[in-house]
Amino acid sequence: MAPPETPKPPTLADLIRHGKESIVREWERRVLSDPSVPEANRLPEPVLRDHIPLFLDSLTAVARTPHPEHFVVGEGVLPSAHARQRHAQAYSLRSALREWAHFRATLLDFIGDAHLTQWSELKRLLAEIDAAMVTVGSELYEADILSRIRIDADHDRTRSQLESLITTAPLGVAFVDQELRYLRVNETFARMSGLSVREIEARPVDEVTGTHAQIVPEKIQAVLDTGITQVSLPEDEGSEVEKPGWIASYYPMRNPIGKTYIVGIVVADARARRA
Fold first, then answer.
1. What angle, rounded to 10 degrees, do the helices at 52-64 and 20-32 form?
2. Fold category of 169-274 in CATH
3. How confident is the model at residue 245, as a pLDDT?
4. What kind of architecture, by CATH, is found in domain 12-151?
5. What distance in Å separates the CA atoms of residue 62 and residue 10, rounded to the nearest whole number?
6. For the residues of 52-102, what is the DSSP string, one character each?
7. How many other C-beta atoms are found inside a 10 Å radius of the C-beta of residue 133?
8. Residue 272 scores a pLDDT above 80
9. Confidence of residue 173 (pLDDT cuts 50, 70, 90)
């Protein structure tokens, strides 16, 4: 009687293919429980997973190929697309690489539990994952640099436009920061306040506008809190600027992520309009 055949150990490709969902779910658990990846907790599950299941499928294909071209996956389309997606989701470089470190550790633990003996194939896959981490890191770094360049260029254009508005507008114009200090005012605004530009800029609003200043800071704070434009009409009791006959409008100015960080104030003489 022939001895029973010894069952063949599972191949690396079969392990990954059959355990794909378990690997992904364990990776998700580790990422979501890692305080160093805070961005993950604000993403729905399909978005968090992103390209990870497809990357596992690609690793399975590599494991089935006798002599694959070096880094056919790690330096390919998927890691690059994943990096661009994470950049769009405002991931830091540290967080993105932490996700990939968790992926590598999860895959190693899963395969180790199966007592795999095909170490040469495993080393190939780990090299692919390491190459993917390098690709993601490089893509995110370059994307961050380009974003900073674009933001700086946008800021330069905005500053130029604001400077033009301040110096040429026939209206009173001022900009106030989150601490309710005047950042910049034009000559017209200063004349309306009965002060010089130098006496106003860098000072708190309530130090400039006198005894009736409570109206001005309240409206500025409302714009900072809500991002909604506020208007003071001539009949409102107001400050030295916001007195009967003047219309003051308060506008939100937002940073690249949409948060109001400066309030622009435009003051016009309503009596001049009626004349």
1. 140
2. Beta-Lactamase (3.30.450)
3. 63
4. Orthogonal Bundle (1.10)
5. 16
6. HHHHHHHHHHHHH-SSPPTTTTTTSHHHHHHHHHHHHTT--HHHHHHHHHH
7. 19
8. no
9. confident
